[in-house]
Specification:
Length: about 130
Amino acid sequence: MQSNHKKGKGVVRPDRSVEVTSFEGIIPDPETLAELEKILPGSTERWMKMAESEVSSRQLNENRITWTFKTSTILSLVCAFLTSMAVIITGLYCIHLGQAKWGATIITGGVATVISAYWFRSRGSK
């Protein structure tokens, strides 16, 4: 298994350098944890609690993002449906009042707008 631990020399001033240690991820490799535990007893347990807290926080944020995306998708579909129905009902009402030309124009324009919106959206997602 490849270690996430990197050691090297860092230059503080031209006449001094220090040993630099870095790692990727939440938890350092076992050697670093062992050295830290020697210096500060109980630090490994605190580090693990911090890592668990970080993972829980990330999961909570991902759940919130997923819920927001699903809710906004459903709301946008409901609004699109209600708007389309309002346009079609308005067109039918115009036809009922004897304005067939205007009613047909409203219905045709509304349906064409909805179809073109979905068509352009599906083309853009490819």
